[in-house]
Amino acid sequence: MLGLSPSEWIAVELSLRIAIVATAVALPFGVALGWVLARKEFWGKTLLDGVIYLPLVLPPVVTGYLLLVSFGRRGPIGAFLADYFGIVFSFRWTGAALSCGVMGFPLMVRPIRLALEAIDRRLEEAGATLGANPALVFLTITFPLALPGIIAGAVLCFARALGEFGATITFVSNIPGETQTISAAIYTLLQVPGGDVVAGRLVVVAIIISFAALVASEWFARRASMRFQGE
Amino acid sequence: MLEVDVEKKLGAFTVAARFQASAGVTALYGPSGAGKTTIVNMIAGLLAPDAGSITLDHTVLFDAATGTSVPPYRRNIGYVFQEGRLFPHLSVRQNLDYGRRMSGHSRDTDEFARIVALLDIGHLLDRRPRLLSGGERQRVAIGRALLLRPQLLLLDEPLASLDSGHKHEILPHLIRLRDESKVPMVYVSHTAAELRQIATNVVRLEAGRVIAIGGLDLLKDVDAFAAK
User: Is the Cβ pair A129, B77 closer than 8 Å?
Assistant: First the structure.
């Protein structure tokens, strides 16, 4: 299909794996932070808000550099995780997933926060009078009502992760089969004479995946909001 | 038996109320802004009083002196809100079943059927709240609170959001409920005509204070409050 060579398929598979893992790992943090930002007032909230949005405004290369010095093999966090948990990020696909997750995180948090802010708190009160403890109120009322926003956040993060280039190549380089995603592969192919034909095939794949993600999110969001409108 | 003796400061406004409610329907009667909803929210546990205590059937729900405050989800008090507050993402049946599921009680189909029949909502069970009329919504809200098997039922202006036709659709159900079940009710309203049909005792409030406690004679002849 599409006439892709095995090595190109590897880049596609790697891109999908990285984007899916980045989104899945970021999601619980995104929901938690969206909830904190929507519901809590505390000292330093503006600062936290700013730090979360930083990857959106910083040059991706700068984010990649910061990841390298903190999560690299010799970085303080990277060394700690490697020594105590055996988790290594440098020059691994896991590092690519980390940088993609960091870059997609602000896009994920925002719709989740907005969805949580839009929920009628009085429904949660009603849940409490009906015997639901705070955890059950969250699971049975808050979460389902915020679901369209949570899906939107996840899809935006996924799309951003799929397209991530600058931070990833700075942090974990461009290693075929390990950290070379579709974007990095297209970039590499364009450096080689005659590589633009192969690159074109990968461009088509990138368009198909992105479009499919968009359609899927629309479908999920519509289904979720249809549940509130009635049969 | 419910015993309330609470104080709560809300900005420049202070609510200070002391009254008891036993079997039957105790009306909290007064003009808007008299603090009726504030008092009911404190009984339900949604708002913490600054001082005083709340006791229900000899269980202390709140006592400022000892720092006791039972959270709302452990109070077992049914609450029918003015605007119903049905869960929009659940069907009527799931809304009705919510309290039982959250408290982990086993399913009681007889009780479910009895309350569905009492409120005449059997034909609505598979619908979403959005598609219900105001009166239907309020009947479901009453059923949802009752299926919790509460020790006390709070009703905060349950008819206020309905037009007069739909008010007549609800009141007979509430009167039957009063006569058939043993659950004491606290019924908030500013409409004397409505309370004359349902209430057994009256606590009259004005500007956050209880100004009289007694029978139906405390209700004004002319509905001065309702005119507001």
Answer: yes
* Domain assignment present for B8: yes
Domain count, chain B: 1
CB atoms near residue A187 (< 10 Å): 16
For position B36, which CATH number holds? 3.40.50.300
Measure Cα distances from A53 to A63, A68, A165, B67 in Å.
Answer: 12, 19, 18, 42
Contact B62, B53 (CB under 8 A): yes
CATH number attached to the domain at A6-229? 1.10.3720.10
CB contacts of B43 in chain A (<8 Å) are none
Residue B147, pLDDT > 50, answer yes
Domain ranges of chain A: 6-229
> Does B125 reside within a domain?
no
Kindly state whether residue B36 falls inside one of the protein's structural domains: yes
pLDDT of B77-103, one tens digit each? 999 999 889 999 999 999 999 999 998
Contact B98 A132 (CB under 8 A): yes
- Alpha-carbon distance of A44 to A187, in angstroms, equals 40
Best to test chain A binding among B37, B43, B89, B133 (most A CBs inside 10 Å): B89
The answer to whether A37 and A45 have CB atoms below 8 angstroms apart is yes
